[in-house]
Amino acid sequence: MIANKKEFFGGLAMLAAFVVVLIIIFSPVFKGHNGLEYLDSLYNSISKGSAYYIPDILKETARFNGRSVDAKLALGDEKQAQQTAVLFQKGGASVTAAGASLHVIGDLGRILENTLSDADEMYHNKGEAVSKKYGYNERQVLYNWWKALHAMEKELQKQKQFKEDKVVAMVVKKGVEPSYNYYRIEAQKISDRMGVVIFSLVFYVVYTLWYGFAILYMFEGWGMRLEH
Fold first, then answer.
1. pLDDT tens-digit readout, 150-194
2. 64 in Cβ contact with 121 (< 8 Å)
3. Residue ranges per domain, the chain?
4. CA 197, 57, 158, 79 torsion: positive or negative?
5. What whole-number distance in Å separates Cα of residue 142 and Cα of residue 123?
6. Cβ(213)–Cβ(17) below 8 Å
7. How far is Cα 13 from Cα 19, in angstroms, rounded to an integer?
8. How far apart, in whole angstroms, are the C-alpha atoms of residue 108 and residue 110?
9. Residues 6+ apart with CB under 8 A from 70
10. For residue 111, how far is the Cα from the chain centroid?
11. Tell me, what's the pLDDT at 123?
12. How far apart are CA 123 and CA 179, in angstroms?
């Protein structure tokens, strides 16, 4: 038995409107994407605009020019080792391959400079240049850098070359990983999309409260009350 029909049906109407809006959100009406996809793309673009650290990292890696490293790297398989050998050779290093392992001897500053050059091209969505440089897929190039530099980190730690280990880790975290994750996403400044950002945040809060009050009114109209 409905105790308060006006309140109950008011809540029901709010819930129905909530569902209609939800259907619109999940429909491809936002430039061919649904609302979640559109906002996900927007926030990825905005976050990419604030994740470009490569110029600053280059200043750090330049301090290691002339610093020699001698490291044995364990990779996934023989094919990856062969692909990765080319990366180090482009950075002026001497590389010996043995199955899934590489023995790399070279100037750490030059190696990391080459890494960041590839990462920079990928960050700016110029993957074709990277693919042409090495002769295989650009995403695989960056993944191979990620894998090899992680292996180099472990080797440098064993050798107690902690400064070198730290700079390699920084190149991976702030150079290789953002460039891989944001590849083919166009960077945008939040100031250019401030209106959409504010609207989406306000809408999220209002839409959540909208659902909560719809349920509240329906249950209260039904005659249910919280008692102490």
1. 999 999 999 999 999 999 999 999 999 999 999 999 888 877 788
2. no
3. 5-48+187-222, 54-181
4. positive
5. 11
6. no
7. 10
8. 6
9. 103, 104, 105
10. 24
11. 96
12. 4
Collapsed DSSP state (helix, strand, coil) of residue 156: helix
Q: What's the pLDDT at 228? A: 46
Q: How far apart are CA 93 and CA 208, in angstroms?
A: 57
Q: Are 222 and 16 in contact, with CB atoms under 8 Å apart?
A: no
Q: How many whole angstroms separate alpha carbon 111 and alpha carbon 90?
A: 8
Q: Kindly report, residue by residue over 94-139, the tens digit of the pLDDT.
A: 999 999 999 999 999 999 999 999 999 999 999 999 999 999 999 9
Note whether 176 and 45 are within 8 A (CB).
Answer: no
Residues forming a β-bridge with 94: 105
pLDDT(5) > 60: yes
Phi, psi of 92 (to 5 degrees): 85, 10
